[in-house]
Structure prediction request, 423 residues.
Amino acid sequence: MTSLKTMLLGKTDCPCGRAHSCDIRFVEIGDNALEMLPEVCADFSRILLVADGNTYPLCGERVKSLLGNKIAAEQIFGRDIVVPDEQAIAAIEAQMPKDTDLLLGIGSGVINDLCKHVSFKHGIRYAIIATAPSMDGYASVGAALILEQMKVTLNARVPYAILAESAILRTAPMDMIRSGYGDIVGKYSCLNDWKLAHLLRGEYFCDFVFDTVMESVKAVEDKAEALLARDPEAVRCLMEALVNVGVMMSYVGNSRPASGSEHHLSHYFEITGLLNGHEYYLHGIDVLYSAALTARLREELLSQKPPFAPYTEDRDAWEKELRRVYTSAADGIIALQDKVGLYADIDVKQLEKAWESVCAILREAPGYEQMLSYVTAIGLDINECKAFYGKEILSDALRYAKDLKDRYTVLWIAYALGVGYHE
Prediction:
């Protein structure tokens, strides 16, 4: 896997025609990473520390000892799950002195996204001390939030620094380590979606970014057993892969190299869970299960033969279904799809003409059984997922998760052809 230090230098001569860059100043993953804090924070004097009741005990006092009176204020959430919503944003802003020049987070996904958003909103930098190798958003430009009960990713900027100490990462709850593994192995699905969107919709595509993300997947996919044993080298490798994927998102300016149909399914489970009071898995675990579901969907598509039945849309029926599954959030989702126009662009004849090429791309992704082997290797069970969500939620997710985003994936092909995953 190409070293992170090399990736942070950017790539100005990419064959895709774009110059790639990443504005992260420091990345340190390994033993004693926190000892870099004085150097990282040398140019800052008014720091707001952000953590929660689970992450602060891991190193909060040590951070304050290393930085002394540079810590101007703190926002420490409780031990309950922190939702990255309007209330959490307001809580951070309420503790932020006017002359704050750096937000320093201690945590993983939610703390990282909150610091990323608030710092961008107020025009200051942020740094993150990672406490779990649980997701790939540490180095990305997007902040994943839940605003007005909708899962949204807002543009922001990358962190000034990412520090991840092995001894801390290894103590993360095992489901968070599983989540990180799932987020990486799930890239098989999103990378395949990216190729499909390039073929069918002319979307920008970069072979270098694609290959670099795939390197990260290959570096991690056989580490499940070692990760379950909390092997230091395996945990370090996973964390490096997660950050590396985030850097690739910075290279293209969005999450396309890291998020596709499997993430849309994951977001569906989370959003509808919040709306309807249903439980859902950690993000990366949902991503891994969902990548298996999309693998099965790809296999079902490969069994289809042209000519295809014409696509017809019943607008009233579609709106009724969206209101059923998304309840109070439906208006925003309907408005998004009306703006994006993906339904208007459904062209079955185009699919027929390109079907041989579409199938060639679909075959590049691992099959259902291969994806199940990754699920099993990390100590999960697809049957538990199916029982956990139930047939109705899974069926609705495969049909309506696509509506959450403006991104073309295999879910749109399946919808256009009336194909769904059935067992």
Q: What stands out?
A: The first helix runs from residue 4 to 8.
